[in-house]
Amino acid sequence: MGTIKRKTQVRREQIAQAALEELAEHGPAELKLAPIAARLGLVISAIYRHYSSKEEILNAVIELIGSRLEANVSEASRISENPLARLEFLLQRHVALVRQNSGIPRLLFSGEVFGGGSGQRERLFRLIDGYLARVAEIIGEGQLAGSIRADVDAPTLAVHFLGIVQPAVILGHLSDGRFDVARHAKKAWRLFVDAAVPREEG
């Protein structure tokens, strides 16, 4: 039974990934099951065995994005005990995730999400809010260690951290990639560090 569940989970993730790739080309409004099935070498009925509608697939894509953000946070925690090093690593992974999956901004900024009544807007809010909470935890550890200013609110600084990426992603999306998100993130990271690191008195 466990093997069947694992296979089902793998297939569901494969479908969500294929849908994310389709979103990069067509956006949520034009998302169709046939191209998703074709990417996986499946028939449409095989998709329906896992998801009953396009809305369920979009929800699965949101969950996939959330799981990858969570995986990035977990990996950052493993690579270093230094909170600033973890935040820099997390920033790099966040940028890479968006650059490698251009369907993410097409989903996030779509009318289907912001104007729909399917609960996707609330799902995205919970996803981003949870991610910010994890970033705030890392910042709080840095404040306790003295490597990050203790006189700033950790959740506010977490939003500031996310702000390195999100406006740049919008510009990258609007410019069809002409705006270099990775280059911007490197420069903005230095500004973030200047603002977050305690100043030496002297």
Describe this structure in a few short sentences.
The chain is an all-alpha fold and 202 residues long.
Write the layout of secondary structure elements.
Elements: H1 2-26, H2 33-40, H3 44-48, H4 54-79, H5 83-100, H6 103-108, H7 111-115, H8 120-145, H9 154-162, H10 166-174, H11 181-196
Explain what this protein looks like in three dimensions.
With about 200 residues, the protein is mainly α. The chain has a domain at about 60-195: Orthogonal Bundle (Tetracycline Repressor, domain 2), CATH 1.10.357. Helices cover about 75% and strands about 0% of the residues. The chain has 11 helices and no strands. It has helices at about 1-25, 35-40, 45-50, 55-80, 85-100, 105-110, 110-115, 120-145, 155-160, 165-175, 180-195. Helix 1 packs across helix 2 and helix 4 packs antiparallel against helix 5. It is elongated. The mean pLDDT is about 90.
Helix content: over 70%
Shape: elongated
Structural class: mainly alpha
Query: In the CATH hierarchy, what is the superfamily of one domain?
Result: Tetracycline Repressor, domain 2
Q: Let me know the largest β-sheet.
A: none
Unreliable spans are none
Examine the coordinates and then state which fold CATH places here, giving the name of the CATH topology of one domain.
Tetracycline Repressor, domain 2
Order of helices and strands: HHHHHHHHHHH
What is the CATH architecture assignment of one domain? Orthogonal Bundle
Tell me how many strands there are: 0
Work out the strand percent: under 5%
Counting DSSP H or I runs of 4 or more residues, the number of helices is 11
Radius of gyration in whole Å, from Cα? 19 Å
Distance between the termini: 66 Å
- Average pLDDT, to the nearest integer? 90
Instruction: Provide the CATH top-level class of one domain.
Output: Mainly Alpha
